Amino acid sequence: MDKSKRAAVIAGNWKMNMTPSQTTAFINELAPKVAGLDGCKVVLCVPFVDIAPAVEAAKGTNIEIGAENIHWEAKGAYTGEISGAMLSECGVKYVIVGHSERRQYFGETDVTVNARVKAGLANGLKVILCVGETLTEREQGVTYETVARQTKIALLGVSAEELKNVIIAYEPVWAIGTGKTATAEQAEEVCAAIRGVLADIYCEKCAEATTIQYGGSMNAKNAEELLSMKNIDGGLIGGASLKSDDFTVIVKAAQ
Ligand code: 13P
After folding, report:
1. The model's pTM
2. Which atom of ligand 1 is nearest to the CA of 99?
């Protein structure tokens, strides 16, 4: 299967940015700019309180809305968490799981990431599963081991059928928010390795059909080169997703 048969997905990860009113204004501004750009899926993953206004503003556009996290339990005493039913009832279609900021600052482990992936899938959401090595791991030469371990554990108990609703985002931690992008070759190498891991644990065809994004300082200038690589099917964009013109350039680069 060649790359053109895989869904290209450009997703913004707003992190802890934008209030509800800013959300509405941003989507009203972005929607006409990306209208008709149907060569890739356009997704904005937004903070929980921005979901309702985002879904409302995105009605009738080609923009889909995602969340930035999901809890594994259906409900209960989990202060500060959010359930899959809450997200899907609000019109969320995607959810980011295992972002390095969650792993780094909020104690997420491969095991909790696995539980959250399964909750997303069980609730009919498309899961954007983030994996990536730290600078130390890269310098110590364990990049592949790291992303392979993260991928394998995150997907424990996920069937080949369910894998169709999983997108993998390769985000080298050292490239996030630093302005330091992986070179297209570095990103391609690791994305290809992740596809190899999927072939090992599922099958060649399953691996070929899975969308793999690059994330980490992807911007209006470097998107085209990164997206031209054989194994890079999209991007997970932080900073540049907060500027409608820059985000539009990235969406255009994925056409
Ligand atoms: P930046 O694009 O700001 O580096 O963030 C990338 C990211 O973490 C997306 O999830």
Report:
1. 0.98
2. 10
